[in-house]
Design a protein that fits this description.
alpha/beta; Translation, Eukaryotic Peptide Chain Release Factor Subunit 1, Chain A; Nucleotidyltransferase, domain 5; 60s Ribosomal Protein L30, Chain: A; 6-stranded mixed sheet
C-alpha cells in the first residue's frame, strides 16, 4: 500500500460541534431497553452498511484516479511542449481563453520551430475544447501537448480531469512534463479518527483528519487528590472520590459520544492515558456502543491536554499505517485457508466469480488493485446488488501479490457451498 507522510499539522483550538457559548449541552438520552434498543441498533447497523458501501465506491474512484495520474506521469515531451491548465469552478472561461490566446502569441517567440509548432497546436486544441467544456463544481484540469512516442515521433494528446476536490487557484504551465502535484496532494489520506486522552484530572477530545490534529473539547474534573483533608474519615473520603471519578468518566463519555458520533465516516477511535485510568474508563462502557466498536488502539501517554493528542497519534503510528493492510491480510488469509480446507466456499477467476455474483452466493468479493477500473466497477456493482462486501487488495504483501499472479486479481469468499 502507498504510504503517505506522517507529519502532523497543528490546528487551532475549536469548539465541539453544536456548542454555543452560554447554553448548556443537553445530555444524551438514557439507554433504551428491550425492543427500542434493538431497533436503534438495527438502524445503526443499516447506516454502517450504507457508509461501508459509500467507502467502497469512493475507494474505487480513488484507485481509478490514481491510475490516471500514473499514466500522465509517464508522459514526456521532447522540449517544453506539455501544457497543464488548472481552472477553478468560479473562474470565468472567457478570462481563461484570453490568457491562453496571449500565451499563443508569446509562443511565436520560441526559437525551436518544432517546439513552437507543437505548443501552438496544443493551445489551439485547448481553446477549441474550452468553448464546449463543462466546468464541474470542483473545477477542471486540462493536460495537452506533443507527447513523445519514441524516436522523433510525437503525437498531440489531450486529457480532461475532474478533480476529487475543489481547485482553488488558476494555474498555467508549459514544460517537458505535466504538472501533477496539485492533483497528487488531493490523494493524500483524509481518513478521520477520534482521539481521547484522559486521566483523573483532565481529558481532551479531538480528531485526526488526514495529517491534521484538531482538538475539540477539553474537560477538567473535580476529583480530589489522594490525600484527604483533616476532619474526614478515610472511608468517607474514598467514597466521595469514587463518586467524583464516576461523574467525570460519565462527562467524558457523554461529550466524546456527542462529538465523535457527529463525524462522518469515522474510521476508528484511539484512546490514551495512564494506567489504570484508561482501562477503568473502557471497562465502564461510558462511550456509545458504536464508538466502542470502533476502538482500534489503547496507548500509554504521559499528557492529557492538547499535547497528549499529538503524543497519542505518535504512539499509534504503526496502527494507523497498517490498519487497511491488516484488514486485507486477514481477508486473504481467510481466503487461502478456505481454498485449502473448504474449496467449495471460494471462487476465483473472472468467469467463475461473475457467475457466483449473479447467483447471489458471494459474501466478499476480492479485487486486486491491478484489475482494470472499468471491470472493477462492473463487478463491484454486481456485488452491491446482492449485498456482498467488496475488498480492494493491495499487491504490497505476499498474499495480495498472489491474488494478482495466481488468480488474475479476482476472487471471492462464498456465503454457502454451491
Amino acid at each position: 500500500m502507498r504510504q503517505w507522510s506522517s507529519g502532523m499539522t497543528r490546528a487551532p483550538q475549536a469548539r465541539s460541534p453544536g456548542s454555543n457559548p452560554g447554553c448548556r449541552t443537553s445530555p444524551l438520552p438514557k439507554k433504551r431497553k428491550g425492543g427500542e434498543e434493538e431497533e436503534e441498533k438495527r438502524r445503526g447497523e443499516k447506516e454502517k452498511e450504507k457508509g461501508e458501501k459509500r467507502e467502497i465506491r469512493m475507494d474505487l474512484e480513488k484507485r481509478e484516479f490514481q491510475r490516471l495520474l500514473e499514466e500522465l506521469r509517464k508522459k514526456s515531451g521532447r522540449g517544453t511542449e506539455l501544457i497543464s491548465v488548472y481552472i477553478p469552478p468560479d473562474r470565468d472561461i472567457s478570462d481563461v481563453m484570453s490568457h491562453l490566446r496571449a500565451e499563443q502569441g508569446q509562443a511565436m517567440n520560441i526559437k525551436s520551430k518544432s517546439t513552437r509548432k507543437n505548443v501552438h497546436a496544443a493551445l489551439e486544441a485547448i481553446l477549441s475544447k474550452l468553448r464546449y467544456l463543462h466546468i464541474g463544481e470542483n473545477g477542471v484540469a486540462i493536460f495537452c501537448g506533443a507527447v513523445s512516442q519514441g524516436g522523433d515521433k510525437t503525437d498531440i494528446e489531450f486529457y480532461v480531469v475532474e478533480p476529487p476536490e475543489k481547485i482553488t487557484s488558476y494555474i498555467y504551465r508549459c514544460d517537458s512534463s505535466f504538472l501533477l502535484e496539485p492533483l497528487e496532494r488531493m490523494l493524500a489520506s483524509n481518513e478521520t479518527f477520534g482521539l481521547i486522552v484522559l486521566d483523573k484530572r483532565e481529558a481532551t477530545i479531538g480528531i485526526l483528519r488526514g495529517k491534521l490534529i484538531q482538538p475539540l473539547k477539553h474537560l477538567t474534573s473535580s476529583v480530589p487528590g489522594k490525600h484527604r483533608k483533616g476532619g474526614q474519615s478515610a472511608p468517607r473520603f474514598q467514597r466521595l472520590r469514587e463518586i467524583a471519578i464516576e461523574d467525570f468518566y460519565q462527562r467524558i463519555g457523554r461529550h466524546a459520544s456527542e462529538i465523535l458520533l457527529a463525524v462522518d465516516d469515522l474510521k476508528g477511535v484511539l484512546i490514551g492515558g495512564p494506567s489504570p485510568t484508561k482501562e477503568e474508563f473502557l471497562k465502564g462502557n461510558y462511550l456509545h456502543y458504536e464508538l466502542r466498536d470502533k476502538i482500534i488502539g489503547v496507548f500509554d501517554v504521559a499528557y492529557t491536554d492538547e499535547s497528549g493528542l499529538y503524543e497519542l497519534v505518535d504512539k499509534a503510528e504503526d496502527v494507523l499505517e497498517g490498519l487497511e493492510l491488516v484488514k486485507e491480510k486477514r481477508l486473504m488469509s481467510r481466503f487461502m485457508k478456505l481454498l485449502v480446507n473448504e474449496p467449495e466456499l471460494v471462487a476465483y477467476g473472472e468467469e467463475e466469480v461473475r457467475k457466483k455474483l449473479e447467483e447471489g452466493s458471494v459474501e466478499t468479493l476480492l479485487l486486486s488493485e491491478s484489475v482494470p477500473a472499468e471491470k472493477m466497477r462492473e463487478l463491484a456493482e454486481l456485488a452491491e446488488k446482492t449485498n456482498a462486501e467488496v475488498a480492494l487488495i493491495s499487491a504490497d504483501f505476499e498474499e495480495g501479490s498472489q491474488l494478482e499472479r495466481a488468480f488474475k486479481g479476482i476472487a471471492a469468499i462464498l456465503r454457502f457451498k454451491s
